[in-house]
Amino acid sequence: MQRIFLIVIATILFGILLLIIIVPLLIDLKPADGEITAPAAAEVDSQFVRIPFPGTAGINFHIHSTSAPSGDANAFVLLHGFTFNVFTWDALFPFFAAQGQVIAYDQIPYGLSDKLLPGDWTDANPYSKAAAIKQLFALMDQSGIEQAILVGNSAGGTLALEAALTHPERIKALILIDPWIYAQRPTLPQFLVETPQLRRISLFLARHLGGEKLPLLERSYADPERITPERRTLAAIHSRLANWDVAWAALLNHSLMDKVTVSAHLGEIKQPVLIIAGSEDRLVPVEDSARAARAFSNAEFAVLPDCGHVPHEECPDLTKAVIAHWLRALPQRAVHHN
C-alpha cells in the first residue's frame, strides 16, 4: 500500500512538473500589432526627446515639460509608478508648473516612450535599475536641470530614492506618494530568468497588466468609480503601439533579477522628504509609508482620507494642499551640498 501511495504521489508531482514546463510554451509569442505611431498618439502638449544610451541607437522618451521660469525657482521631475505613464500627473502638472520648471516622462517601455525589444541593445540592459537612474539624470541634463525635487509615486518613489542615493548633490528634496519601499518581489537567478518558460510567463503577465482591464489602475483607486473614461484611455495608450507587450515582458523579466534594497539605506537620505499616503491604499500599506517616514532624518508624513494608491489622481486637491504647505517651509529644511 505504501509503495502504491508513493507511486501515486510521484506521478502527480511528475504531472505538475510537466505542466510547469509545457504550459508556458503554449503562450503565443507574436507581438501586439500597433495601429498608430507614438507621435500620432501624443497629446498637444507632448514632446519627444532622444537621449544617448550605451549599446543602443539612442532612446526616445515621451515627455511633458515646461521651460525654466525666471528667478530662483524650483525644478520638479515627476516619476510615475509601475505600469502607469506620464498622464498620471495631469491633475497636478499645472500646480507644479506654477512653482517652477517641470519635466514628467514615460519611463521605458511605458506610455509612448520607446518599446525596446531584446536585440535592440548590445550593452547594459536598458530596463535595469541602474539604467533607469542613468536615464533620469540624462533627461535632467537635456532639460538643463542641475538640481531637482523628485516627485515619485509607487515604484517611481523607489526610483527617486535610488537617484538620491546615487547623486545626492543633484536632488534638492523628495516628495514620495505611496512609495514602494518595503514591499518585496521575487528575485531569481539569471539562468532561470532566461528560460523560455519564464520569458513566456513574463509575456503573459505583461499582457494581463497592460491589457484592456488595467487591473492595477482599478486597484489603485479607493473607489474605482472615480476613474473617468478619459483616464482609462490615457492609461492604456501604450496598447496603440506595436510590440508594447513584448517590451513590457522584457522589463518584467529583467526585474526578476533586480533586488529592491533601498529600504536598507533610508538613513543615508539627508534631503527633506515628504511622504504622502492614501488611507485606503490597497497596494502599499499605510503602515509601510509611516515606517519609512520614521527612517528618514528629515521627513514629514501625511495621510489623505478616502484616497487610494494614486491620490494625485484620485484626490488632487488634497494632495496639492499638502505639497503646497510643505513647499512653503522647504527653504528652512533644505540641505546644502558643497
TrEMBL record:
The chain crosses the membrane at residues 5-27. The keyword Secreted does not apply. InterPro entries: AB_hydrolase_1 (IPR000073), AB_hydrolase_fold (IPR029058). It comes from the Bacteria. Residues 75-314 form the AB hydrolase-1 domain. Keywords: Hydrolase, Membrane, Transmembrane, Transmembrane helix. GO terms for molecular function: hydrolase activity. This is Alpha/beta hydrolase. It comes from Thiospirillum jenense.
